[in-house]
């Protein structure tokens, strides 16, 4: 057979057409695809079955870690929350905890509770967006409209507290940026109760839907051993039957004073992975209610820092449970106002590692359901 | 006589001239109608380049409902689209792909630069992997500022684009 003719026009690197086998076809999915996210998956398919999948992240690599080295500890805050703008409190949390360790300041009790409430609200906002896109991926338009609409309730609430819709930059070393509004407790309780009532209805329209079950059950099964071996975190790990939640295992701030439960499912398929975040949201509502009850009604919300605070010569690693899994931040300080090296260890990238293993042997039509069920946000993975 | 003038060699020229004459005759009266059609059915490409896509998603959510302005949330092919909303940061890896997507779209096509990153590089002005604005690779029609812009701002940007299309010469 003659050699395969490759288009002569010079294409950008990575876009060349590969030699095609008699049986195996290479298919480029993305970076422009009708789901969400600038993500390219190079899949090799045999008929309708995926033989090999190779995710190609890095389309939004913006060099956050390098940039952090030339900015001081306070001016680092706005750009470090940009990887996950709709989960900005949780992605900032490990950085703020780390800087507090380095600079050596105590956080007021009230600020700790406000942080927990803000982080849990943000987790709900994140998961609602994730769920909306999951609906899109499965062609379930109602499941885009419902979470995207209900999400606005909590965004309103966060806007009242922080002044911004999504990029809050609310957590700063030493506490939070500004105090909550006057009647915050009542408004928050009312909103959260209504929100909980709303999300319980998702079970009827989405999770008990036989079409969804048919599409997601027994697809992309990740066994308990593989989940641990591949280093997945968060909802993916818990959907495979591993009870691991940093809010319980390594409690930070006031999580040890609150009654936190984790949700664990044993199946490890796409359905379980899509259900765990929803259960997490219900749990978040419980945590917010507890925190509102226990929160000191008055007091300081921030310990004042010196301008341009210097960290001591040390290195710290702190991690928290974000909406996607454990988000960590490793800071090396050399006694300067800027970090010497900053490393974000993000859960999206760890969960992505499992994707090639999950896709092998799946049908091509199941790829979106498996891909997005990994609780993955491309911008975070690329940093 | 026509048979002598039109030879197989220059047939294309005559057809082209005829087209031009027809175009001129039709353009003036129909231009407004064509523009009216274009401005109320803008199909954006579903390309999400960075985090501004969260607010783009929110703009098509029930509260903001961008569809009432004729901006349709697209799930279709590139060949049907006529609007690129560049949602945020363009990195060196993404830039050739964005241009490729733009080149594949049929004329007429419009570009909205959404967010500070797409306009000037924004927060990442000193990053080694981020383009300082997309002007270098795409002709931008409307700039929507913000980091990220609120959905209202995006909708206002779309309305500005519609205003622009309305006053454009239909080609």
State the assembly state of the protein chains.
heterodimer
Q: What is the rounded distance between the termini of chain B? A: 33 Å
Which of globular, elongated, flat, extended, rod-shaped describes the shape of chain B?
elongated
Order of strands, widest sheet of chain B: 1-2-3
Average pLDDT rating of chain B: 83
Enter the CATH topology name of the largest domain in chain A: Cytochrome-c3 Hydrogenase, chain B
CATH class of chain B: Alpha Beta
Number of domains of chain A: 2
Low-confidence regions of chain B: none
Radius of gyration of chain A, in Å, reads 22 Å
Order of helices and strands of chain B: HHHEHEHEH
What is the terminal-to-terminal distance of chain A? 45 Å
Sheet of most strands of chain A:
3 strands, antiparallel
> Would you tell me which CATH topology of chain B applies?
Rossmann fold
Which structural class best describes the helix and strand composition of chain B? mainly alpha
